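chain below, 231 aa
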Amino acid sequence: MLEVKNIHSGYGPVQVLFGVSLSVNASEILCLLGRNGAGKTTIMKSIMGLVPITRGSVSLEGQPLHSLPTHRVPRMGVGYIPQGRRLFPELTVSENIEMGLMVRNEGADTRDWVLDLFPRLKDRLRQQAGTLSGGEQQMLATARALCVRPKVLLLDEPTEGLQPSMIEQIRQVVVRMKQEGIAIVLVEQRVDAVLSIADKVTFVENGKDVQTIGAADLRDDPELLRSRLGV
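prediction:
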C-alpha cells in the first residue's frame, strides 16, 4: 500500500532524515515511536510533500508520491491530521468539512459518513472551529482528513492534550478505519495507546528507522521500550 524507501529530507541546509524506510498495508496500523526530535513529524511531512525529499521515494499502490506537487498528494488518497490540528479557526465546522470534501470532489454521502463518525460535530456545524474544545477540534481535524476518503491516514500526536474520554473516541475511530481497509501511520507518545491498537511499531532515532517490530512482540518485551525510549 504505502511504501517509503530510503528517504532523506530536511529543512533547508539542515538534514533531518537519513535513509528512512517503512511500509504499511491496508487494514494495518503502523506506529512510529521515538524520543522528541527523532524525526517522526518530519517523516509525516515528507510523505505529504510538505518537506522536500532529496533522495529516496514514497509510493502508494505503486504510484510515486514524492515527485508530485504537495497539493496533489491528498488527491491520491492520503489523509493527514497534523500535530496541532491546523484547522481554519475563523471558518465554521461545516466550512472546514467542506474544505476537505473539495480535495477529491466528494459529496453529501461522504459528509454524512464523517458526521456519523463524530455526532458531536453535527450540533456545532455553524460554530467557528477556533471556539471548539481541544477534543472537538481534534474530531474536526480527523473528520476533515477523512473527507478525502483516504487509502492511507497519517495521524501525528492525535491524543495530545486530550481528556481520557476524547482519547477513547479518537481511538475507536482509528480502529474503525483500520477495519474499513485504510492503512494507518500513527505518531503517538502514549505508549499504552500505541500498544493497544498497533499491528507493528517502527522506532525512529536520529532521523533513521532503527527497528520495526510487531506490537505483540513489543508487549512481551518491555525492556525494549526502556532501551529505545527510556520508559
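The longest strand covers residues 14-24. The two ends are 32 Å apart (CA to CA).
thats it, cya
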